[in-house]
Design brief:
The protein has 220 residues and is mostly helical. It has a domain at 52-105. The protein has helices at residues 2-68, 72-85, 88-105, 107-118, 125-141, 145-155, 163-176, 180-192, 198-212.
């Protein structure tokens, strides 16, 4: 009896499936075709994106080599093209590199290029802060401490990942203008931060000695 019931149940399910197929076969086939087409389209997209990334990587490396060989105009041209046409990651990387190369030729022009990155809401917050840091460094190197100090002070907050470099630069900027007390305050923050990198702690001994010696002129 159990076997008979099982066979009847299987026959019933087969009939139900056959009825469903007769009624909805077109829809089922259409759904399967869409699924296959969707998977194939996604695989094709991934393949194309990989090709674009590989091409952008090769173009970026070539542009960097041009810059190292002193072919600044050619490097700037190729980096500029990458900022327009490359995948998102290489577009951003090329913008940073182009700003750095511009800064080699003109500190203020490079700083403005980094300012543009810092003001771009589409860029990740930590990278925007990095752009602010690079702009401030260029202005500080050019002797424009008044323009660089506010940005560096913003980056010196306890939770900012770039605070260590910002504090070091603020201390050096204070030393350059003869403000030994101001320099000491920044160097104290460096000393008290448990996450200060070991390399900076090693330099800190020299900075503290310079600050303790009173007003001095420091060059970077």
């Amino acid at each position: 009896m159990d076997e008979f019931i099982r066979e009847v149940d299987e026959d019933y399910r087969r009939e139900r499936l056959a009825a469903i197929w007769r009624r909805h076969s077109g829809l089922i086939v259409g759904i399967l075709v869409l699924i296959v087409a969707g998977v194939g389209g996604w695989r094709f997209y991934e393949h194309r994106e990989l090709q674009r990334a590989e091409a952008a990587s090769a173009s970026y490396d070539a542009a960097v080599k041009l810059a190292r060989d002193g072919k600044d105009a050619d490097a700037a041209r190729d980096l500029e093209a990458l900022t327009r046409d490359a995948p998102a990651g290489y577009r951003l990387l090329s913008r940073f590199r182009l700003a750095a190369e511009t800064g080699r030729q003109s500190g203020e022009s490079g700083a403005k290029a980094f300012d543009a990155l810092a003001e771009d809401a589409s860029v990740d917050g930590s990278l925007r802060d990095l752009a602010r840091l690079r702009a401030a460094m260029l202005r500080l190197d050019g002797g424009d401490a008044a323009a660089s100090v506010p940005a560096l002070e913003r980056l010196s907050s306890p939770t900012n990942p770039w605070r260590h470099t910002a504090r070091e630069l603020l201390g050096l900027a204070a030393l350059k203008k003869g403000d030994a007390d101001g320099a000491s305050r920044w160097f104290d923050q460096i000393a008290q931060d448990r996450e200060t990198p070991s390399g900076l702690r090693g330099r800190l001994e020299v900075y503290v000695a310079l600050a303790a010696g009173g007003p001095v002129q420091v060059t970077q």
